[in-house]
Design brief:
The complex is a heterodimer of chains A (123) and B (168). In chain A, 36% of the residues lie in helices and 27% in strands. With 123 residues, chain A is of the alpha+beta class. Chain A has a single domain, classed as Dynein light chain 2a, cytoplasmic (Beta-Lactamase, 2-Layer Sandwich), CATH 3.30.450.30. In chain A, strands 2-1-5-4-3 form a five-stranded antiparallel sheet, sandwiched between helices. In chain A, α1 packs antiparallel against α3. Chain A is globular, with a radius of gyration of 14 Å. Chain B is an alpha+beta fold and 168 residues long. Chain B has one domain: Beta-Lactamase, CATH 3.30.450. Chain B is built from six helices and five strands, in the order ααααββαβββα. In chain B, strands 2-1-5-4-3 form a five-stranded antiparallel sheet, with helices on both faces. In chain B, α1 runs antiparallel to α5 and α4 runs antiparallel to α6. In chain B, 33% of the residues are buried. Classes of the chains: A alpha+beta (123), B alpha+beta (168). Chains A and B meet through α2 of A and α6 of B.
């Protein structure tokens, strides 16, 4: 079991990690961020990606798919953005948002590690 | 400020067929002087309205926006279904309380306060030294997005108002 701070630190250890945020998608606000900079403001990314998560959840609802999102992958020219809605009882309503360098990261490994981090995360 | 708010609320409740009587209870000179100070010329009103419209367009689930002076006088509004004069006064009370709390903590200048209800949000932002911006929104509001979009709007409104309005 790991608390939020150490989970975020662990996520930053993933090869190619640029930034990570734990976000509450009911308010769009980040509970914690690591790797935020002047050029890449993770609080703005948190607010924007909240709309992405909400849109996808609404889409599933409209399609009457009785399923949940494991992760959302957004591939940019130079980055991967991975969004992982959390599902345990005490993390519901939150998602992990991870920014990876496309040249340095191994996507499969990063997804696997994020899954482990999610399982261990204790709020 | 709270007294002004209570007066307004009381006035709301009074039956409408006695407006002349109600008007006599209010000291005539004070509201008039205030009103003179608050009336903003069209040159300021146009960019103010544009800012409010733009904010409503940019942030989903926002249902109303208004600008008021720090003493609670309505300056500009786009608030369907809400009594804007009363809301302006309540916003000023909210801002005043926020400023006092911040002053007591000595933690810089008041920036904004967000009130969350089970079925919506009300946020009041300081707009410079003389005005405030209040946003009313539904329960699905992305609060962080509102912060991101409304802070620069409040700053610009502050600049606009700072140039034209000087409270007594």
């Amino acid at each position: 079991m790991a608390d939020m701070e150490s989970s975020l630190q662990e996520a930053m250890q993933i090869e190619g990690a640029i930034g990570v945020a734990l976000v509450d998608y009911t308010s769009g606000m980040a509970l914690g961020t690591l790797g935020s900079s002047k050029e890449f403001d993770l609080t703005i990314a948190a607010a924007g990606n909240t709309d992405v998560v909400r849109a996808k959840l609404r889409t599933l609802e409209m399609l009457k798919l009785k399923d949940s999102i494991e992760d959302i992958l957004i591939t940019l020219g130079g980055q991967y953005h991975v969004i992982r809605p959390l599902t345990s009882r005490n993390t519901q309503g939150l998602f992990l948002y991870m920014v990876l360098s496309r040249t340095r990261a191994n996507l499969a490994m990063a997804r696997h590690k994020l899954k482990t981090i999610e399982t261990d995360l204790q709020m | 400020m709270i007294r002004a708010l209570l007066d307004l609320l009381r006035r709301e409740q009074e039956p409408s067929h006695e407006p002349r009587h109600a008007a006599q209870d209010i000291p005539q000179d004070i509201p008039q002087t205030r009103k003179r100070g608050v009336v903003v010329d069209t040159e300021t009103q146009i960019p103010l309205q544009a800012e409010l419209r733009e904010l409503r367009l940019r942030v989903p689930y926002v249902t109303g926006v208004l600008v008021a002076s720090v003493d609670g006088m309505l300056i500009a509004e786009d608030t369907p279904g809400i009594e804007p004069e009363v809301f302006a006064a309540m916003s000023a009370a909210q801002l005043g309380l926020g400023q006092q709390i911040v002053a007591a903590l000595r933690s810089g200048d008041f920036r904004e306060t967000v009130t969350a209800a089970t079925n919506g949000y009300v946020a009041t932002f300081a707009a410079g030294q003389t005005a405030l911006l209040t946003v009313v929104a539904g329960p699905d509001l992305n609060v962080a997005r509102l912060h991101h979009e409304a802070r620069p709007v409040a700053a610009r409104i502050g600049q606009l108002m700072g140039a034209v309005y000087h409270p007594a």
